[in-house]
Write a structure and sequence with these properties.
UPP_synth-like_sf, alpha/beta, transferase, EC 2.5.1.-, 259 residues, 14% strand, 6-stranded parallel β-sheet, UPP_synth-like, metal-binding, 9 helices
C-alpha cells in the first residue's frame, strides 16, 4: 500500500512526464481522424468487483475525457465504437442498461455544444428509443462548428460494406443503369461515396485498448491505410498520458500508405 508521501511524489512525476510528452508533439504531425475501439469495460468491472453495467458507465465517462484530449491537440474527426452489431446479441439484462448508458452519453455530448455528432451504424437494428436519441443528437448539432464525432452504435464493418453496395445499386437503378453497365464502370470511389463516413477523411490512427491486437471489423474499408496503436490499459483506465503516447507513436512513424 502506497503512503500519501509516495503517492504525492508519484503524481508529481507522472504530471512532469505527461507535460514532457505533450511538449514533444509537433502540431503538423497530429492525426486528422482518430478511430478508437473502446475495449475492456466488462473486464474492468470484473476486476474491481462491480456489475458489468458499472464498467459500461465508467467507460462512457471516459469518452468525454478522450474527446477533450483529441480536441486539445487539434484532431478534426473522432470515431468512437460504442456498440457493435455482434454486441446486439448480448443478454437483455446487459444490453438494455448498456443502450440506456449510450443514449445518456450521446445526450451529454450533445449538451456540451462543441461537437458535431454523426451516428455511424445500422440504426434499423437498434431499438427505437436508441435510434431516435442518435438522430436527435445529429439534428441538434448539425450546425456546430467543432470536432466531428462519429458515434458508432450498432456498427459492423461487413454490414457497412453491404449497406454501401446496396445503396449504390439502388441509386444506379433509379437512374436506369443496368447491372452490366454498373459492373463495367464501378470503382472504389463509387463505394466510398456510400459508406457511413462518406465525405470524411479516412482515419489516420486507430487506437484499441485492453491489449487486444485486432480490429474486429472496425472501419474495415476506411482503415486500409491507417496506423494502429494497441494499448494494454482497459478503456476505463486509459489515461491522458496513454493518449499522448499514441499520438507520439503516430508522429514518429513514416507512413507508407500501403507500400
Amino acid at each position: 500500500m502506497r503512503t500519501p508521501g509516495k503517492q504525492k511524489l508519484r503524481n508529481a512525476l507522472y504530471s512532469l512526464y505527461e507535460r514532457r510528452v505533450r511538449r514533444s508533439l509537433s502540431p503538423d504531425r497530429i492525426p486528422r481522424h482518430i478511430g478508437v475501439i473502446i475495449d475492456g469495460n466488462r473486464r474492468w468491472a470484473r476486476q474491481v468487483g462491480d456489475p458489468v453495467s458499472r464498467g459500461h458507465e465508467a467507460g462512457a465517462n471516459k469518452i468525454s475525457e478522450f474527446l477533450e484530449w483529441c480536441d486539445d491537440v487539434g484532431v478534426k474527426v473522432v470515431t468512437v465504437w460504442m456498440l457493435s452489431t455482434d454486441n446486439l446479441s448480448r443478454p437483455a439484462d446487459e444490453l438494455e442498461p448498456l443502450l440506456r448508458i449510450i443514449e445518456q452519453t450521446v445526450e451529454e455530448l450533445t449538451a456540451i455544444g462543441r461537437y458535431r455528432i454523426h451516428p455511424v451504424g445500422a440504426l434499423d437494428l437498434l431499438p427505437g428509443t436508441t435510434a431516435e436519441a442518435l438522430k436527435a443528437a445529429e439534428t441538434a448539432t448539425h450546425d456546430v462548428d467543432g470536432m466531428l464525432v462519429n458515434v458508432a452504435v450498432g456498427y459492423g464493418g461487413r454490414r457497412e460494406l453491404a449497406d454501401a453496395v446496396r445503396s449504390l445499386l439502388l441509386e444506379e437503378a433509379a437512374k436506369g443503369i443496368s447491372i452490366e453497365e454498373l459492373a463495367d464502370r464501378v470503382d472504389v470511389e463509387h463505394i466510398a461515396r456510400h459508406l457511413y463516413t462518406k465525405g470524411q477523411p479516412d482515419p489516420d490512427l486507430v487506437i484499441r485498448t485492453s491489449g487486444e491486437q485486432r480490429l474486429g471489423g472496425f472501419l474495415l474499408w476506411q482503415s486500409a491505410l491507417s496506423e494502429f496503436y494497441f494499448c494494454e490499459a482497459l478503456w476505463p483506465d486509459f489515461r491522458h498520458v496513454d493518449f499522448l503516447r499514441a499520438i507520439r507513436s503516430y508522429a514518429q512513424r513514416e507512413r507508407r500508405f500501403g507500400t
